[in-house]
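pasting for the record
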Amino acid sequence: RKKYTSEEQMHQLIQKSIGQTMRIKTMADQLFEHFFVYATEWENAKMELTDADRLFEQVLEEYAYALESKGMKVDIEFCPVNSQIYVNVELLQRALDNLYSNILKYADSAGTIQIAYRKERKHILLIISNEICSGYEKKESTGIGLNTCRKIISHFGGSFWTEEEEDRFIVTMELPLV
């Protein structure tokens, strides 16, 4: 409604609105994840046979591009598995979105995000690691996002675990191949 006195004030109001919007989005995401972790209705989600390489290559390239556009360095080691996986693509995307969100929140933007994708025995192994931002405190995280990832991957018959080594946070996701 043009209730500002200068262009600078307009930009400040826009930035304030964006900040408020992002806080609301974060709270909504946390609420969604909380109910997702403790609800069971999603477990009936339709599973489908999907080409693993095509799915992961597309998704990982999108995340790499998004991270690089935010000034982060990303190294991807993509070793095709030439196989299929049985998943609900939307749920898998939700798990990967959580990991992407965590990288934005907790990774040192000056460090390198490493993404490795390969076949190991009869599984796909996806490993994402990043340097932890020096200002990060464990109490900032509720852990709901990682619990959501763990529950989704477990639902697909896979395994999900995290570890910290010195200043690096490492996420490993293992999914069975069909």
